[in-house]
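Researcher: I'm preparing a figure for a lab meeting and need a structural model of a single chain. I don't have an experimental structure, so a prediction will have to do for now. The sequence is pasted below. Please return the structure as tokens so I can convert it later.
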Amino acid sequence: MRGATNKKKVQEYTTIDLQCLNVDGLNHEKLALIEDYCIEERPDILALQETKFTVESLPPNLDIDGYNHYVTERSEQDKKGGGLIIYYKTEIPVRTWTRPGKSKNLDTANEYQWIMIETKTSKMAIANVYFACQSSKNRNYLEWNTEMYNELKADIEVLRDLNFAILMMGDFNGWTGKQPGMENNSAGINENGRLLLDFIAEEEMYMMNRLNKKGQVFTRTHYTVTGRLLSQSCLDYALIAKEAKVGSWSFDLVEAKDELGINTDHKLLKITGEVNVIRRKKDKKKTIPSFNNEELREKYKRKVKQSLRKKNRKTFQGDNTTMQIQTLHNVILEASKASVGKQKTHKNKQKRRISHHTKKLLHEKRLIQEEIKETGKTQDLIQDLVVKKQEIKDSILNGLVEHRRKVRLELALKDPTKKVFWRLTKRSAGKDQGITAVWGPDKKIIFDPPKVKKAVYDSFKGRLNGKDEAPQPVKRKQKKTSRLGKKLSKPVSRDELKKVIAQIKKEKAPGPFGIHGEHVIYGGFLLHEFIRDWLNNLLKTGVVPEILKQGRVSLLYKRGDCLDPANYRPITISSVMMKVLTRLLNIRLEEVVEENKFLSEKQFGFRKKYSTTDAVLVVSAAIDKARLDNLDAGMASIDLKAAYDMVSRDALFAKLDSLGLNGSFLQLIEDYYTGDSVIYAVGDGVTKPLYMTQGVKQGCNLSPMLFNLFLVDMINKVHEMKLGIKLGTDIITIISYADDIIAFAKCIDDLKLVIKCITDECNKINMKVSVTKSQILRVGHSVRTYDNVDDDLLDFDQVLKCKYLGVFLENRTGIYYGEFAKACVKKAKAYKFAIMRKAKDSHDPIRVAQELWNKAAIPGILYGCEVLPIRKQELRMLNSEASSLGKFILQIPKNSTNVTAHLVGGIETVEYYYYKRVLGYRARVEKMDNDKLAHRVYNYIMSSDQNFGYKRCHTSLDRLLGGKSLAEWYTENINKQRDLHVTSCYVLPVKLAPEDGLKLKFHVHDEISKIYAEFITMNAGLGNRGPVKGFKQHKQCQLCAKRNKKEKLNEQHILFECEQLRRLQHRYGLIAYKQAAGQIDISQIYKNYWLDDLPSGVILGRVESADAIRNVYINVMKTILRT
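Model: Understood. Here is the structure written out token by token.
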């Protein structure tokens, strides 16, 4: 934004600079040039088309300093091309927009994108578009573009109803002929151009290309390699609604090759106009503590100690809890500011600015181009231009490589916990702006910040039954403190507090007072003693300071309409000191609850020694039992509406009291939940406090256990019906993991009774069952009568499969869960593509790929496999994905032997991890006490005569291992595969153990390592393992065949045996090496040649020699085959 009349004002009359460019594919080189252009020229909005990125290939870092971005990309399954990015300045209040109700299944859904800008007198919506090219190769372009125009018309209709000015720019791929102001344009109008002109006429748009006063018309020029102009046309346009074309607007074309240095045949469109824009206020610099330096931590501890020694501890102990917490806050913040505090510089984004050397090369390239224009294209100038372009590319890429090396060094020195590593591999998807606009009551979009805050406030107030003012506290009659109440309310010991502090998580967001968890962790003994005094005062009085009852809520967009506050996830950030208190109370509460068995054994959520896998085991066993006993059974997946937010607090307090969990413990909880409030972060401000009257607090340490106790009566009531499926001595009628509830009935007709009981019991405690989200799954005999049964009595949707705790359950007739296995394969493919994408653009591709696969992908892919069997055919598919990633790490061709990845790629088979998890869970469940439901169900399955799928899985696995340990079996199996493919694997080392960390001598993601791996794995692209591009595959050496000799083609042949390459073999010392080896087999000579224990420099020379001989062989082979 330029030309502001008053810098002090937030609202300014200014000129907006909009630019767009078809980049014809975006790579690292172009990204660096675009970033440098943005930093130098500072366009307000830069729209890019045809990035050719896909969901799977999007680089993890698209950030430009001072800009946010909005990305739209196709999937790998869609046709190639496309891809859009809009960069916009962080100071401009921009909101991305999608028309509510727009179908996401349209082919053209990702071919255009909208952003909205709030202005003083009007509102502006800007579209970035890319239309299909009119070509004989692209036969459905007309249908494609017609669909796009229809969707854009629907968007514009909605936006105009909302009083938005419309501006569109991008690659329309249409010839529009001669227009006023464009007399120099070609006269021809193609079908795409006709669609565009019709669209302009129907929607009353104005073609801004007509404003170009320099007489330039053509936005795309196409040259031959020698520089001869082949064609030129106008394909890129900027359109503005006629009612919006007020004030001064201009249009200009810029040569992208000259100004940006970007290799594209399109020109950059530059549109400027005058608007009144509300700028965002710059954030004030914040002081953020850094605890990475041990000296600074010690200094902080000393400062805290000095401040507290000035306090009279006895006086502190006599203060009320509010005065105490204020004292602690002040001491911590002052000590932090004097030691670990530092000013936030707001330079957290790494600039990829190109170097001065690169700029010099770009300038030299422009001089050559100008000379070509003046003197014409000579062979020498063309050659100079080609060389200069390569120098520019090399300079940019070398800069990126150097940056990665610096990051890698920083990672090695400062990353003992690997948090920096994970942060670097995380994709930057642009800044999450929270909610800055909402729908108004008249279905018009509201941008005004006070009105947006009110709309957000009213939305949550209505859904959560909140109040504008704190309700008057209702004092309940206190009973005499019970034995358990005394245990929960006893003073805090030093050891107990030490245990609590040890559980505080580091590197988390600070609370509303700016205090981090590290402030407490590193505060030292004296601070911990003062905190203990404060906690004991709380337990004595049962009163929580009012300043700790308010939480700040950040809103994170989930999915759906971004203008609806209901589609944002509230994340509450509370005080660190309050977290210390609630963690202490929760530790005590868990101990008392488990000791006294206050919870049902059917409740698996948020309990020690219970897991989601235990719940899935029981549920899947019940489904299996229905199949084996041929029952006419049913299963219901119950969804509770906003479960945590709907908890009746009075009912919760009464339940705790009835269990004897009273005393100051209960008084503290009641006081904490009386007069508590939240403020919602909206834009740059917050709403007024919303006072809560129901629900347990999201993110509070106590909430999961309180919720479990709140639901236990309903769980027990349903269980007592005994209408479920019998597994040994247990009848499974209901299983709960927090608010994820599964109900069973051995007879489908009884399922309605079970559901009614759940609904009635929930109604008593203010909980509501969602009819639209709950589902019924028929199991057993009822699977086969699914289509022939009258289900009017059942209100829920009936499905063939449902998701429970992250795994698919289905009404199958066999022993395997096919949908679950398919989901595993699908996840493996998605993980593989995502990891390869991240690794390519990372600081250390090999480490990134291995770490992400082993520590993120494998747990995600195999989640639930411990109790849900996977068939051999799916295991083979999963192994294939793992091998594919291993080949990517080694940089070897896809047709290389799969076992190579498991020998030296650092990637084990998925089958190994699957068996490891199955055996690990079996060992765990066998060690459980008999009072655990999962243990009894497991024993029943394994001792049953019936053919349970889980039992059959273990029987097959035991038979496969044959008494060996998994490690022994796996190592032996991999080595058998190595022996089976000995011709390509004999140079590779023998597998020693799972995850043995064996790797090649050159194990870096660069060209030398790639060549080395190709020769080590006997797949150097000679044409014997797969065809050289443009030629057929052949098994015999073509150079020897030319001399009428039949010699088997492989790597050892061209390096040591091919007589036609004798001169090269002699030059590079291969003949001498062979002679020195003596009378041993040629394969052994080849193996020794690569595995000799020599300095890396020597082996590097051998790699270069082998590569040179290979290239000569391939070039001569091509010449022979062409003739």
